[in-house]
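thread: overnight batch results

M.L. [08:02]
morning all. the overnight job finished for the chain we discussed friday. pasting input first so we're all looking at the same thing
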Amino acid sequence: MGILWWRRGKKVRLKIHKEEVWTYLTEVNWHKSQVNDSVNKIIEFSVAKPKEMLPFILQYADGIEILEPQELKQEYISTLNNAMRINSDT
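M.L. [08:03]
and the structure it wrote out:
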């Protein structure tokens, strides 16, 4: 991936709501900062530019909740709303 995950930075916390997504995302260590909380199904990363994780997160849109940072969550919601607007029949 081209995401700048090589520097420590802002914390990104993701709550995983689908077991198959949890299994896939935790069977590989995506980054050295990755911490998997199997009790609460939360994955945490420290990344330089959280916004660059958006395409990765969007792959699992119906199975992931962004807990933090708030700016990434807002960008995610805006992207999803725009996609719904573009693809709606009305």
